[in-house]
Automatic annotation (TrEMBL):
PPR repeats lie at residues 204-238. NCBIfam families: PPR. It holds the Pfam family PPR_2. One of its GO terms (molecular function) is mRNA binding. InterPro entries: PPR_rpt (IPR002885), TPR-like_helical_dom_sf (IPR011990). It comes from the Eukaryota. It comes from Mucor circinelloides f. lusitanicus. This is Pentacotripeptide-repeat region of PRORP domain-containing protein.
Amino acid sequence: MNRDIVPIVNALPKKGGASTNMMPFYNAALSTCRDVKEYQHVRLIFDLIKECPQLTPDTATYNILLKMRLSSTEKGDHVSGLRMYQDMVDEGAQPNHATFNTFIKHAIQHKQWSTLEQWLDMMQQREISPTPVTLRILFRALCVNPNQPDLTRAFDRVSAVVPLSSKQEEFLNAGTSALLGQHKTSAAADLLQTTLGLSNAKVSTYAYNLLLRCLCQQGRIESAQHVLTSMITTDSIPEPDIVSFTTVIHGLIRHADRIDLNQINALYDKLEQQDLRSNNVLQSVILYGLVRSKDNNNLQKTRALFDSIISNKNRAQIPVQHGDCPLAEINTYNMMIDFYFLHYHKSQKTHQIPKQVFQLLNEAVEVKKLTPTLVTMNIMVRGLAVLNKDLVAAEKVVALLKSKGVAMDERTVWYLAKSAYRQGQISKARQLIDDFKLPITQSGLKELKSTLNKWDQKPSTTTTEVVS
């Protein structure tokens, strides 16, 4: 939900002395509103800048607007970057290296490989040299797209003019992070080996956090715990930060057959002994662990953690520590809704739909105006249609969330059709599948469709084969 623009505007200076540059204040307001996606506020503030004789948009202003515009372009719009660049120049903007780095990142994001050398040509025409940031952007892309000749040429061209020298670790870390993002853990491990072998400088905590992430992605949780312990006890390597602990705790939760809450508590105690404090990310990870744990039947404890996360999401944290970030609030609501469904189902309260799921959904979507996700829809549909056999309630929730911009996927259809089939509503199940126009790729819906096709061949059959 957007904040009121009036206090923001009132806080901006309207007049400045001869030596006072007011643009940094306006740029800060633009940047803050853009970061929280208050795009109407961005446009209003920019209009104020243009209307004020004492204010002239500078390169930083245009770079802020550029990032906003590029983030909202369609994937298939292959000329958008070049067109926006020309529009910026026509408006009087003076592009700098940050401008071109933004356009290059956008081209990579949308796989516009053929435009990369065009951007480098335009940089050269304006006598703007690529920076180590430019090189890292291209290296990240090259790590996960090694067979793109246009990208390779652009990287070779920039690497020929940008010395690595003092930025070696940052360069390697950029590639490692990109590879881990694509779950290419073997290649990431090779790069990490090079990084950890650098002899010219002490390797950063960030590099060790990448190592922890790599080990956890490989399922080597015990090794990750050993590395974390070494970071705590060994002077020759950097101390852990909140990200280090969060990574290992998340790894424990994701890869354990049975989540050991005592292990998580022990790591949390170590975190506090390091004079670190929890944050939104770690609290959400721990909530996820409680929700997934087969041994957790403590509804009050889980709800108390949820309430604490929601109530403290905007609390000022002093000192600010690396790894702090805004709470993905809808994800937290999704987890708690899921826990209520699972808790009631495991408690053998058959067909008793917990009223709290509707209260939480209403609070998130209607009261707080949070944007629901596909995960929200699928948690509600599974809980209502599959766990509680209430197909009518599930379809009402689907209609509500569709009105909020959420589209069904194959899993949603499978939950609905499976519920209909189990209740003997064969034509309803078939209609749900027929109405789904996208290709069916997952085994669950494929098997159900095949079973329904057998019904077409045997119309007199009365026995229902339940699909699990």
